[in-house]
Amino acid sequence: MKVLILISCLYPHGAEYSCLRHILDSKKNYKTQFHVISILGGRLEKELLINDISCFILSKNLSVKGLYKMTKLIKQEQFDIIHSWMYHSNVLGSILSILTKKPLITSIRQALPSYKSLRLRTIIISFLDSILSRYKAKFITFNSISGLDDHTKKLIYNKRKCIYIPNQPYIIPFKKTNVKNYTSKEFISGEAIKILSLARDDVSKNLSYMISLIKETAKDLKASNKKIILNLYGDGMDSKKLKLKYISNLPENLLINFNDKSSEISGILLNHDIYISTSLWEGYPNSLITATTSGCIPICTDAGDSWKLLGDFTYKLSKNILIDKNILFKAISKSTSINRNDFSKDYIDFLKKLYKNSMNYNDLYRRATEN
User: Is residue 103 within 8 Å of residue 369, measured between CB atoms?
Assistant: First the structure.
């Protein structure tokens, strides 16, 4: 089967990585052929090309010649189905589906807690997508149940066409490793609990609450001589402005490091004790799931399907510091007493059972082309 994937960009974020994993898994296990058209470029273009997936970047070809090239490509390849990924590309997918008369599957990769969570332009595009998808899409897929509920209640997506297909998780089983310790010299001499978050300074990630919570927890632990290291990794997280905003008045037993996004995710996770997420909403908690498979104790808010996908393995934040300090104390205590290898194995087994009967996109491709 030949599939045309349309995606809004190829930046190395959660939704884009999920698309890449889906393409590579389907190519390997189902022998599906893919071609990607992305509205914007990004670093993942290299990953696609390395794996022999041809890629057309629309923003680099905004000319009569470029659009002709794209049209010629679509006609020559004779794709069986169009699969679009995120609002903007869903609209493009509907237009191409009308022009080519090929079946269309659209995908939405985020929750919609309120209209305030989106830019005005994105709200307009999402409304347009909801209208077009009612008439053109065979199926509208969501990677979270909360996202599906949000969009069918707050926009006019056709619930009968909506299907929940969770992301294929990125699993990093616990194993002893010789990679460097992600600490700082002044803390190496004493025992420190290492807490990690992969995030960015965005309203949805609720970073100010996370840092306030860890500050207050560190103050309460000071008497017991326990130290905390909080390492934050993400796009733009190493900026001086961000450090000045959050690092003032830290208790002396707390160290916070702001780091840019890293490719050493396995080593970083395996050298931390706890993974924290204070998100207000999530499309799908990729990093939380990956962190838990590595044996990190997860602590998180009920954003997206987080609590459902982590089950009893997570410590649940209420977004009230007085309550959440006690939750964090319990997570710290747990992290010092568990057999991390067993914890990792148990969670991976839980995840496999959770995913056992879930539908995948290849089943959907078959259904869409048969109808």
Answer: yes
